[in-house]
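User: Structure with alpha-L-arabinofuranose, tokens only please.
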Amino acid sequence: MPEKTFARLSAIAVIASSSILASGQSAPATLTIHPDQPISTVSPTLYGLMTEEINYSYDGGLYAEMVRNRTLRGDWSGINYWYLVEDGNAQAKMAADESTGPSAALPKSLKLDIEKADAKNQAGVLNVGWWGMALHRNTAYKGSFYAKAGSADIGPVTVSLVNDNTGKAVATATVNEIGTDWKQHTFVLKTGAIETSATNHLVITAGHPGTLWLQLVSLFPPTYHDRTNGFRTDLMEKMAAMHPAFLRMPGGNYLEGDHINERFDWKKTIGPLVDRPTHRSPWNYQSSDGMGLLEFLGWCEDLHMQPLLAVYGGYSLSQEHVNPGADLEPYVQDALDEIEYVTGGPETKWGAERAKDGHPAPFKLSYVEIGNEDWFDRSGSYDARFTQFYKAIKAKYPDLQLIATAPVKGVKPDVIDEHYYVRATQNFHDANHYDASDGKSPSAQHWDSGHYDKVDRNGPKIFVGEWATREGSPTPNMGAALGDAAWMTGLERNSDLVVMSAYAPLLVRVDPGGMQWETDLIGYNAMKSYGSPAYYAQVMFASYLGDHTVASELENGGSKLFYSATLNKAKKQLYLKLVNASSEAQPVDLAMPGAHVAPNAKVVRLSAPDTQTTNSIDDPTRLVPVESTLHNVSSKLKVILPAYSIQVLQIDLQ
Ligand code: AHR
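Assistant:
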């Protein structure tokens, strides 16, 4: 069968075909679908995003800032990622200065003492960026820094982007009038007809003896939707193709921090960047907090997602917790303030703050999650902590749906967040985890024994807030994608109960030292990014979601065939996801009794010769979905699913 992989998701090639696929042999399975018998609703929010500051997801990732350690933090080894520059005969010293900075949040700075320099022999500092700085031809890079000088005669400061290999400047700007008080200066670095590369760095120099202090040095490429302080376009486009309905913000351990004072303290992440003190993330690096609360909300706006706000619940990872009662009250108030910052009108205290930060319009919010993975809290305080948050939030915001991260008895949560990190085999065994007919959850597959051990359809709704088949590094291979797809068929079948889900982690920097957690959906370096086979499985499932499940029966399916059947009532389309995780082709006799179907159906298929095949930064599109057309479709047809394949059939009903 002729086929063509597509280079971009938006440019899917359509190929004619008289059958889905050829070859292979297992005993035929019989799948009967009843498009006229809707069973249960499919949640429109089933697929969303979960991200946190891990694997350089924000700094060095989605957040487009090109300067690494822009707040010039020092340690025993110096000021990381910054180096002294002495051109020709210039002489200078650089050091961390703890006595001066542009704001209370950033009270320190880099001090450059230039002993000898002139226009041709300049002295200064350079920044190596996040594993380099990607530069494209004819592009404007917008920068800024805070500076002050020992005396006004320090002269102009030169800012350049320099190619690592040639040592030549590829873009230069001059900043004049550095005064003796702290002030922000801006510049634009415009490249010409350069060769695109990531082997570049930023240099800031002066040609006159004197002292120069620097802080908050920043440089941005063009961003997605031209957002100031915004996001990398390629990563945003990849996320957009996933059709995410929500963003869990911020998710995971990053919300909690290792210690209470290292939590995501949202009030320190809003307002001008110079007023954000930065903080250490539990994944062992400093977060610039350039991705603060309002930036998360902007990200939601850009991708048309609803925010799922995660508020700090009074537990941090080193077994530190805040006692329920009076001790917890300030944290509960903080959460109420945070909700007001997101949803309040400009007449409210925190709504006014948001308006001052540049966004007068309130955001729509339906879900608030309290904490993260609180089953880790060995003090057993979560029940009382959740209850205290629940009562306070519901009293002020009765319509908000509140999500618990562990079982509680004090109140009934609206939703429970469950997490699963498993191997593909476990997902094959557990694909019916939430099926009503089953009614039990196989505890062996549980991430932690603290979860509910029964799927109670009268209980809270389920948010599978983190899940992944963990096979492949840095990004999942085809075997993992098959495990994911099998699992997603179960989520879709049970989406009356499972109202939301999110793969985690989403992003990974693939440069050496960039990964803290293996098996992440999308990989990238400074120049480019790629989607794993599991990423494409997500794109396929979310692109053809449907709004109702329909009645169906499978016979003779064996242990490696998984499916879900959903209907888009308004479009009169049936979406059939078929996953063959076996090493043999699987014939399927498909029947849709009484259905009137259009003669041509769309097929989107991802398949591989084995489970280990994968995509990588150097081979980014080895496996991508291929679209084709199935002709002569009727209410009875035979399809052959190749070994190791995931496919979506879109059948138009007449
Ligand atoms: O996704 C990685 C981590 O796994 C998250 O930070 C945490 O919530 C979970 O344990």
